[in-house]
Amino acid sequence: MYIHNLSKQNSVLNRFISEIRDTNVQQDNMRFRRNIERIGEILGYELSKTFGFVSKHVTTPLGICETTDFNNDIVLCSILRAGVPLHNGLLNYFDTAENAFISAYRHHKDNPESFEIVVEYLACPDLSNKTLILADPMLATGQSMLATFKALQPFGNPKEIHLVSVIGAKNGVDYVTSEFPKHTHLWIAAVDKELNNKGYIVPGLGDAGDLSFGEKLQK
Ligand code: URA
Fold first, then answer.
1. For ligand 1, atom 3, which residue shows the shortest CA distance?
2. Is the predicted pLDDT of residue 157 greater than 70, yes or no?
3. What dihedral do alpha carbons 207, 200, 163, 118 form, nearest 10°?
4. What region does 142 belong to: left with phi over 0, alpha with psi -120 to 50, or beta?
5. Does residue 179 have its Cβ closer than 6 Å to ligand 1?
6. Fewer CB in a 10 Å sphere around the end CB: N or C, the chain?
7. What is the pLDDT of residues 120-140, one digit of tens each?
8. DSSP-derived secondary structure letter, 216
């Protein structure tokens, strides 16, 4: 696993991360979603540096310009519902990408401290030889990311795999490092130390899905 933790270098990204964590700023759902989207744009920009670029010419009104462009066939896959603003941020930059969506949620049987990941909905194009970008804003245990990757396997073998997360816990980073193919890249905006007994990242930010879209009904 190639781990790219972007908060190791100071940049405007740190402002966006501190705003999504801040309980005062969190009152504004639109700002929360927009900040996640902006973080997706930054992570996408950074990961684009690993793409294969080829030279090309464009015609301007005044002449011919020699430039480069990437030729990766990208599939963006997000985990519903918290992944939607991060997906939008990545799609703002990779506007010709194909898209996949999956619903993966934590099913607590009897014990609130243990859960299994249930995958229910999946829509995905062919992945053979493509650049797969898997987006999940909170990399807590890493189990949803792995369950998603396993569910995508019938759709073909991607050429490259990029995992994109906003905040991760060290456990989650270690888990995906041990479970994903070695050539996988992880692009992450911050890594926190721990998880609480309900599997939430501490200090983290709370529930990214609720902060984006409102609280869900508890069964
Ligand atoms: N999902 C969230 O939304 N937050 C966490 O801290 C962990 C998983």
1. 207
2. yes
3. -80
4. left
5. no
6. C
7. 899 999 999 999 999 999 999
8. P
**Residue 210 CA, ligand 1 centroid: distance in Å:** 10
Looking at the DSSP bridge assignments, the partners of residue 188 are 5, 165
Tell me the three state secondary structure of residue 213.
helix
Q: State if residue 74 touches ligand 1 by the CB under 6 angstroms criterion.
A: no
Average pLDDT of every residue of the chain:
95
**How many whole angstroms from 93 Cα to the centroid of ligand 1?**
25
Residue 105: what are its φ and ψ, rounded to 5°? -135, 160
Which residues have C-beta within 8 Å of that of residue 110, sequence separation ≥ 6? Answer: none
Predicted confidence at residue 219, as pLDDT, reads: 53
Of 80, 105, 138, 195, which is best to mutate to test ligand 1, by the most ligand atoms within 8 angstroms of its C-beta?
A: 138
pLDDT tens per residue, range 21-52: 999 999 999 999 999 999 999 999 999 999 99
Predicted local confidence at residue 30, as pLDDT? 98
Q: Is residue 138 within 8 Å of residue 167, measured between CB atoms?
A: yes
Residue for token digits 């905040």? 167
Q: Give the pLDDT of residue 86.
A: 98
Q: Which residues are paired to 181 by β-bridges? A: none
Task: Taking the CA atoms of 194, 197, 203 and 207 in sequence, report the sign of the dihedral they define.
Answer: positive
Helix (H, G, I), strand (E, B) or coil at 177: helix
pLDDT attached to residue 114: 78
Question: In the numeric block, which tokens belong to residue 128?
Answer: 């053979």
Distance linking the first and last C-alpha atoms of the chain? 37
> What amino acid occupies position 154?
P
